[in-house]
Amino acid sequence: MNVFLLYGLLLKAALTSFSGLGSLPMVRNDLLVERKVLTDRQLNTAVVAGRTGPGPNGLYLVSVGYYADGLPGAAAGLLAVMTPAFLVLPLMRWIGARAESPRVKSAIRAVVLASAGLLLSASLPLARDAITGPLTFGIMLVSFAVLVLTKIDTVWVVLGGAIIGLIAKAAH
User: Fold this and answer.
1) Distance CA 63, CA 146 (A)
2) How far apart are CA 25 and CA 107, in angstroms?
3) Domain ranges, ordered by start, for the chain
4) What is the pTM of this model?
């Protein structure tokens, strides 16, 4: 894949998501559905790699770039993640001056709701790929319940799920 096109696609996703995984639907559509450069498994792996490392949630785009085009793709992903940071300061100054405007509040709410819907639509195919049996389905249900009903930090839930998966794998 052309590294400049990859940078453009990843930059588009980073600029229009307003949060780390909010770009997932766009990335999935551009690189998996339309261009068939990635598989659901690779996209899942990229998300896990980006989420387990320190830093912003959007760092999974570096892994996506790597899967799409090796080291040049990873560099394109890193630049795509970094570029919006240079635009945030002037944008925040502009929005800050208008933050109490009902129109700006409504626009922000609309963006958040649209991002949630898009994220859900992209997550379902990835969940179908990741849930491979009763054990993974059970881990998913328990993890969801723990995250919704308690204040346990996400890292402990991920670590617990990983340990259960490793124990089950070792037992078979």
Assistant:
1) 28
2) 20
3) 3-129, 131-172
4) 0.62
Q: What is the pLDDT of residues 127-157, one digit of tens each?
A: 888 888 999 999 999 999 999 999 999 889 9
Contact (CB, 8 A) for 52 and 88: no
The 10s digit of each residue's pLDDT in 4-27 is 999 999 999 888 876 667 788 889
Residues 7 and 164: their CA atoms lie apart, in Å, by 38
pLDDT tens-digit readout, 88-118: 778 777 777 777 888 888 887 887 888 788 7
Whose tokens are 């793709």? That residue is 73
Question: Which residue in this structure is represented by tokens 């909010």?
Answer: 22
Q: Which residue has the tokens 């240079």?
A: 86
> Rounded distance, CA 99 to CA 68, Å?
39
Element (H, E) at 50: helix 40-52
Long-range contacts of 22-26 (CB under 8 A, 24+ apart): 22/115, 22/118, 22/119, 23/58, 23/61, 24/118, 24/119, 24/122, 24/123, 24/126, 25/118, 25/119, 25/121, 25/122, 26/118
